[in-house]
Amino acid sequence: MKQSLASRCSKVYRYLPTILILLFCLQPILDILSYWQDALKIPFSLSFVPRMIILVVLALGGYVLSERKAPYLLMMGILGVYYACHLYVCYTNGLVSLSTDLATYIRVLQLPVTAICLITCLRCNPDCMEAIQRGILYTMLILALSFLVSTLTGTEPHTYTDKGVGIRGYSFWPNAQSAILSLCAPISIGYVIKKRPDKPLLVTATIVLALSLLFLHATRLSFLCMIITSLGMAIVVFLTRGTPKKYAWILLIATALGGGAYRFSPMYTNQEDVAEYTAVKNTASGALLELGRIQVINGNSPLLQYAGIVQWPDGMEAFALAQPLEECSYNDISASDWRSEYLAYCQSLGVISCYDSKYYFMPEEAMTVIQALTVADNVYEKYHGTVAFADYVGDSWYDVYLKRAEAYGFALEGVTDYEAPLTRAQAAKLLYSALDETEFPLVHEVSTVSDVNTQTPYYDEIMALYRAGVMLDPADKTRFRPDAPITRGEFAVMLAAVVNPAFRICDEGYTLQIPEPVRYDTSRLTPELRKDAVMYPLYTFFCGGLVRRFGIHKTLLSYSYTTNTSVIINERQWKLQYCYMLMDESTPASRLFGLEVTRMFYEGTSYDVENDFHGIYLLYGWVGLALMLLFLLFFIGLIVWALLKNAKRYFTIDSGPVGIALIATLIHAYFTCGVLRRANTLFYLGALLAAIYYLVVIKKYPDEEFAERR
Description:
Blueprint: H1 5-8, H2 16-39, H3 48-65, H4 70-92, H5 98-124, H6 127-152, H7 174-195, H8 200-217, H9 220-239, H10 246-260, H11 266-298, H12 302-306, H13 340-349, H14 369-384, H15 399-408, H16 424-434, H17 459-467, H18 488-499, H19 527-542, H20 544-550, H21 552-558, H22 565-568, H23 571-584, H24 590-593, E1 601-602, E2 605-606, H25 612-650, H26 655-671, H27 679-698, H28 702-709
Antiparallel strand pairs: 1-2
């Protein structure tokens, strides 16, 4: 009788546990390669090819070894038909990158492929269950070694790199690292308790190591999963037969210590920083709303011009304001600061911007060349009523400003480093060149400046500004320091004096003409447009990418015109709203089969959402999300069925940790994008699902064997 293919390959069965352990150990090593690939700026992926080989070997190996081919054929049929539909929808929306979209899909389909193939391994050799547990334990040990080496060598990138908080070892994705640690902890603890119940020091060391890794990782989710693991495993130990109860007490003590340590943990400090950051943003929010109101009164809101409600004047009248801000509203400029009045005026005009996302102006920081060019472009365009290269898109965000400066005739010759500090002489050149020379009449008698001569770069521009009454320090009229870097505060003072003659120094006997503000007819200004214009500075500052991509009105509608700062500054919300608006402008079939991942990138920023279930819907539509949920619910249903049928049989030191690990992993999937679309995490999740199937469907328990013998 002819043997099946699986029967002919049965000799491989005894090697399966060793192969699985090697595959588990390979996962964190590939993560380390991904980290160093990024850190060393290596242009090609060091982990993609090995992961693809692993996936192909798993799929082909599982198919060959399995006596049941139908699940494999059904899985591949569903995945193939679905992707054909998804790809068709992407083409109708304008496919950008097939390779990127396919690579993302391959990562996602790793979950069903891994789970089904590992189920086959467990059918072929039950020892594979222990291999999965050991593989996860070894993963945790490799990650611990990564934590140690990165810390001792000073190459630790930290979980929150910008704040120096947390340890993540050599991991490219902190959220995926947190999910893997949260999955490894209960499995490792349970396995060591089961295998070495008579080794209290070993068990205690495993508990301390597993929980410490989660604590040191320093995310809120890793801390939550630390508590879930320690408390959950204590309950498992209490309820399972034959397990030393002393380990439950050790776990309860660990829970109490872990909870008490929160006040002294990096997470607590990080949350304090977040609270302070939000408070600063709240102050900025109020200032930006006031700025929007002032801009509507002055008629210089960009929305009013775009809508044709006002026609901005050119010349010096473009800088005349009916109602400027009473005082500067930057978070780091006090009302008593001598520069406040100048900055308030420049703010009201909208020709200069803040330094960072905290709405700080940083007046003592050096003004950079590109920052100054951007301001000079704004001034030139306001004065001349023209904008060059409006639709130009370059490789860098400032390329368009360089092109405009060249077109306007005031690009700085010989400058190649645009992030370099701007000199005071260069500042004089840029601001003088932004207006016509007739706007700088003689009002201040000065023939020489002690440190300026005809050999000084931009001598003519410096002297013209001096004679026009534009100078930085009225108390020191004898020195200019042309080669010294100019601070942002000094530049703003010079800018205000250039565009507003009222700020200039005028000698007795000279008069300056101060333009009268233009009164705008706002009778055609609808309440909706007025509201949009008032909120324009707020949303442009906090959600600039969304406003530039979809327009202010669509962005405001997506946020329901909220002024709640905590919502507006939330990065998760930016990404969600971006993708929802992207979905709205796509074909109706996109809601069924999803969007192309490349379309979620704009201006070099990824708006791929930070919630895996949202992410699956947006990438693969309702159909893709339904398939993913049905797959997960099948295994969750197995757990519920087993506990309802015979909880005493199925609730063991093997199954308890698997349940805790699954809960921790699904929590990460809901709150992060580190599970359902990450190849490394999906491998471990697939192993969890396979373990559930084995424990409920495949494994023979002692009471079952006794019943069969009877």
